[in-house]
Amino acid sequence: MAADAMNPAVNSNYSKDCTGNYQLRCESGDMTGKHGQLEIATFSDKNRPTFSYVDNNLELGGAYSIAGRSLGLHLPSSEGGALFDCATITPFYTSDDLITVYTPESEYTTRTEFVKKVSGDNIPPNDVLIVGQRVSNGCVMTVMRTLGETQGIANGYANILDNRADTQFTQCDPDVESGGHLPFLAPLLLLIPLLSTLL
Fold first, then answer.
1. Can you state the percent helix, strand and coil of the chain, rounding each to 5?
2. What is the CA 191 to chain-centroid distance, rounded?
3. pLDDT at residue 193 above 70?
4. What is the pLDDT, as a whole number, of residue 5?
5. What Gene Ontology biological process does one annotation of this record name (predicted)?
6. Structure-model confidence comparison of residues 189 and 69, the more confident one
7. Which of 120, 133, 167, 196 is the most buried if burial means most Cβ atoms within 10 Å?
8. Helices H, strands E: what count in the chain?
9. How buried is residue 63: exposed, middle or buried, by Cβ count under 10 Å (0-12/13-18/19+)?
10. If residue 115 lies in a helix (H) or strand (E), which one and from where to where?
């Protein structure tokens, strides 16, 4: 199932022409043709792999932008190829903020819990990413990236993080924690399962 007007099913040579080595011969939304299929483990499998892919031929702006389109995850053709799950591709803006707070390490469990604790009920958890973090002697130094549909929303979320960090937490002394540096991690913005197709 590919995007746009052409249907690969009517072209008997399509599966031979469209490969990972010749991605421009594929329909723009044919992720399976470009990258191949994935064997996706069950959610309960803690050792399941995570995949990310870059498609330089998908445009994020202009007449052929994929913004507003959808990614669909289909079951294998051997199982009928039915739509299993999908997500809409939405544009967003970002704002980065350095949060340096003290929290007992006994209360610090995971990054997810830390995001919930700092964000409170005012920011959707999926709109906050941790792009760099270091925990030392109870001091959590974190670069948090907020996402929003507009720059104003992203900046507003960053301000909420600042206010909560100031009012809800004990501040750390950056000078005490100046040794080393924050390990910056590139945020994972888009996971594209290879069974996906652009609808």
1. 25, 25, 50
2. 6
3. no
4. 39
5. superoxide metabolic process
6. 69
7. 196
8. 4, 7
9. exposed
10. helix 111-119
Statement: the pTM of the whole predicted model exceeds 0.85: no
Q: Which fold has domain 93-171?
A: Alpha-Beta Plaits (3.30.70)
In the numeric block, which tokens belong to residue 139? 């001091």
Bridge partners, residue 170, by sequence = 102
Query: Residues 102, 169: contact at Cβ < 8 Å?
Result: yes
Axis-axis angle for helices 111-119, 151-168 (nearest 10): 90
Distance CA 183, CA 153 (A): 26
- pLDDT tens per residue, range 116-163: 878 888 888 778 888 887 877 778 788 888 988 889 999 999 999 888
What residue type is assigned to position 155 of the chain?
A: N
How many CB atoms are located within 10 Å of the residue 195 CB?
A: 21
Q: How many residues does the chain have?
A: 199
Q: Among 182, 164, 159, which Cα is nearest to 120's?
A: 164
Burial class of residue 55 (count of CB atoms within 10 Å of its CB; 0-12, 13-18, 19+): middle
Question: 50-109, pLDDT tens digit by residue?
Answer: 677 778 888 877 888 888 888 888 888 888 888 888 888 877 889 988 888 776 655 555
CB 17, CB 25: distance < 8 Å: yes
Distance CA 37, CA 51 (A): 12
For the chain, give every domain's residue range. 93-171
Q: Please report, as a single letter, which amino acid is at residue 198.
A: L
